[in-house]
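Continuing from the previous page of notes. For each protein in this section, the sequence appears first, followed by its structure tokens. Read the first protein now.
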Amino acid sequence: MSLRADELVIDIPGRASGTPLSLAFNGGEVWGILGPNGVGKSTLLQTLIGLRPPRAGQVLLDDRPLPRVPRRTRAQRLGLVFQEHQDGFPATVLETTLAGRHPWASPWRMESADDLARARAALERLDVMPLADRQVHTLSGGERRRVGIATVLTQSPQVWLLDEPTNHLDLHHQVAVMGLIRSLAEEGRSVLMCLHDLNLAARWCDRILLLFPGGDACWGPARDMLVPAVLEGLYGQPLRSTELDGYPVFMPA
């Protein structure tokens, strides 16, 4: 299973153009997408999953243009964790997480015992099983974030797209979620995530895509992209860096 961008230009209102993206997101890799606010990180994820049309180029899933892939197949293979969640109707945490099994369910069939077991296992893994009977709207931001990740874990896609997965999370749960993401790659899944924390990117990502204001982009191995000379130009902010346990650590100057 492969997801690929072919000369892809995302559609950002008011921006004339952008660097065409031609890159493959391979199983076993964690990609970090970095850049200042407003450069199109979330738009890129939504384009890659088919929620927004590109300005130019195309997205291919298993070498097929994404619009030609049946919606059910897309929903089974691609999973998106949104930056923020809006709950359209009252539901418990368990009911919300079970929604991840909808792409796999037959029409007019209730969730199976296996579906329920998958949802409960995902809630356990994200440390929110004690909240299973709570209404989602009563949760804190961090708890809601972990429920969102548990829902996609229940869905079990081959390609994960995560928009700021550590948003609202305390330090312990940040590390736990990033460890989960790493384990997904080790299982052979593809992971793409937007991040603002350079140190999390340096610790957990294999490859980095940098999106610059104005539409320029560059990408490559994390060790080549995550260097002060490149990052200072990306953010317009002087940085200081050191190394800890074999990984670079960045601080604003």
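Done with the first. The second protein uses the same format. Note its length before scrolling.
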Amino acid sequence: MTDPKPSSSQKKIATVALVVAGYDEAIAWYTQKLGFTLFDNVDFGGGKRWVTVGPENGGMRLLLAEAADENQRTRVGDQTGGRVFLFLETDDFSRDHAAMLAAGVNFCEAPRHEAYGTVAVFADLYGNLWDLIQPKQ
């Protein structure tokens, strides 16, 4: 007899590590360009920090992890081999798209309407690709 499958009802993906070139430049970009909130900025000494940012209203947070060696530095901006990495959902695509353009966010394409919603790909300060998406109701 096997044990029953553990319930996933109490589990969630809360944080995703994003390798960055520098803590402060990444904090500035994500808070100023995307309007994210800086939740944590804890200095552990020796150049290591625990830095998390994300939308103020909740959801997953990003752990901004400064590259510690050459291998990690080669991953900055290309954690997914050029595919879209993260999906930023919005309840008002037009509002957020306009605000992000005004803040200088680089969109790689014009907004498009798909079966699943309105979407446009943008790049963060390192070139990681994101979707800004308003899902269909």
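What the second structure shows: The chain has two domains: 14-76, 78-137. DSSP finds three helices and nine strands in the chain. We return to this in next week's lecture.
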